[in-house]
Amino acid sequence: MDRTTTVPATTAATDPTAAPALMRAISQDAAGGPEVLTLVETPRPSPGPGEILVRVHAAGVNPADWKTRARGVFAVGATPPFTLGFDVAGVVEEAGAGVTLFRVGDAVYGMPRFPHPAGAYAEYVTAPARHFAPRPRGLTHIQAGALPLAALTAWQALVDTADVRPGQRVLVHAAAGGVGHLAVQIAKARGAYVIGTAGVAKHGLLRSLGVDEVIDYRTEDFVETLRDAAVDVVVDPLGGPSPARSLRTLRPGGTLVSLLPPDDAFPAREAEAAGVRAVFMLVEPDHAGLREITSLVEDGRLRVIADEVFPLEEAARAHRLGETGRTTGKIVLSVVGTASSS
Asked: pLDDT tens-digit profile of 317-329?
């Protein structure tokens, strides 16, 4: 059974005009399974100079979250007890000294502080104002909460790292996943021919997102299928043997972007010998990148899929689902209101 503490009334409950001194948050004090995630009360933070305080309405759930929880390798600079979560969508509650980008009441979204702790599984978050951007018009908080980490990862991999150009051929592994379903759309928006790997049940979705060619990884060997394809860019969130195998699809001068830290199987020497570039990329907070993503959303060229939504207190259930690897798009925690809240 998930451990959940009793959360008593805060000051705001007795005086609606007073800022609450405490907030609800999901905390863990040791590595382990989803059961280590506990609902607690903790002091509400205050913004420092250049920071904003955001009332969190939605927090995206990412593989980085459950890997951090399970392995005990907490975010940079964090020590237990620790609050997970990097993706934030919400409303500015306070602005610290010197902030000019946002005002109280503005709807914002972002991936603040990554890979340092953001503590998004909570009712309030503070972070530098420039780690956020205005929430895209037409998106709910839930949809916006699903975007930042996955979309920035896809953008920085395809645009900043690989410089995808019109007419190039881009292979995206796990194309229906959190990063994948956004990467294929960003590649299409850049004018690329996009190939995605996914189970057959997700092929219809990928075609609706504009994917030109879909490979069923369960029944096809993508290396054989793409032997003569001369792929320009591969985005690989899988790791293990996948990067080395993906090299065999790349043309000379092509780029492999791995989204997982290199291990002993990472084909750095093989890439150099084959005349291709193989790199590991770690996503960074990026105000300009968020603005570009916002433009794509508002132009109708980027659609985010929030596959499952859980209330904050059911973070453990969200992690259990994520660890099955069977989701499409993103999982989101609803911190304020309902999944349809604006």
From this structure: 999 999 998 889 9
pLDDT bin (cut points 50, 70, 90) of residue 307 is confident
DSSP 3-state of 223 = helix
Exposed/middle/buried for 300, CB within 10 Å: 0-12, 13-18, 19+?
exposed
Between strands 132-134 and 107-110, the pairing is antiparallel
Alpha carbons 10 and 15: distance in angstroms, whole number: 9
The CA-atom distances, in angstroms, between 120 and each of 14, 30, 208, 261, 312 are: 26, 18, 31, 23, 10
Interacting residues of 315 by C-beta distance below 8 A, sequence separation 6+: 26, 34, 37, 61, 84, 121, 333
User: Domain 11-147+304-334 is of which CATH architecture?
Assistant: Alpha-Beta Complex (3.90)
Neighbours of 14 (CB within 10 A): 8
Confirm if 234 and 246 have CB atoms less than 8 A apart: yes
pLDDT 10s digits, 208-223: 999 999 999 999 999 9
Burial of 197 (0-12, 13-18, 19+ CB in 10 A): buried
Which ranges constitute the DSSP H helices of 172-241?
A: 180-189, 203-208, 222-225
| Domain 150-280, architecture per CATH | 3-Layer(aba) Sandwich (3.40)
Kindly provide the b/e burial profile for residues 65-82, where b requires at least 16 CB atoms within 10 angstroms of the residue's own CB.
bbebbeeeebbeebeeeb
Tell me the C-alpha distance between 159 and 138, whole Å: 25
- What's 313's DSSP letter? G
Beta partners for 271?
none
Domain ranges of the chain: 11-147+304-334, 150-280
Q: What is the pLDDT of residues 65-112, one digit of tens each?
A: 998 898 866 667 667 888 999 999 999 999 999 999 999 999 999 999
Q: Are strands 231-236 and 250-258 parallel, antiparallel or unpaired?
A: parallel
pTM for this predicted structure: 0.91
